[in-house]
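Supplementary notes (optional reading)

For those who missed the lab, this is the record we used. Protein: ANT3 protein. Length: 186 residues.
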Amino acid sequence: ETCKVPTMYQESKFRYTFIPQDKVQVLELPYKGDDITMVLVLPSAGTPLEEVERDLTSEKLQGWIDSMKEMSLFVYLPRFRVEDSFSVKEKLRKMGLEDLFSPENARLPGIIAEGRTDLYVSEAFHKAFLEVNEEGSEASAATAVTISGRSFPMNRKIFNANRPFLLFIREAALNTIIFMGRIADP
């Protein structure tokens, strides 16, 4: 199924690789300065995103990231927004924070007035939000340029995210994934 979505365009040098055996293109975009980046994993045309997800491991992703080289690219990316929230109460309980959720045993010093023992945490939620649009791309050092009246240079690669893809927000210095998502319906 296809749909029309607003698309952003940028021409610049980015870290990129094509992994033919895994049938993916991998692109890294500066997200906030140089310490946070957005890594996009785009399956080749005809390769279902589910297949890439099924075969993906942290070692494989690290190998893809390590194999990226800086090169000139034409990047087409849909504007998108990812938002999710979920309860973390059970996870926190399993980590040993039982008393926090107990009306009888909760102690919240520094949060509530001293002497109050009638308050406890009844629920805990985590909410994640990511929006990618032209304003968000201002954090990168590249400038958007529109080319008209000539064909694309032959030595430039094209990264066209016109089908479902994966994204990872990565803290580069620590090499840590801090957010991940799948874009299937922008």
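If you only remember one thing from this example: Residues 86 and 125 are 6 Å apart (CA to CA).
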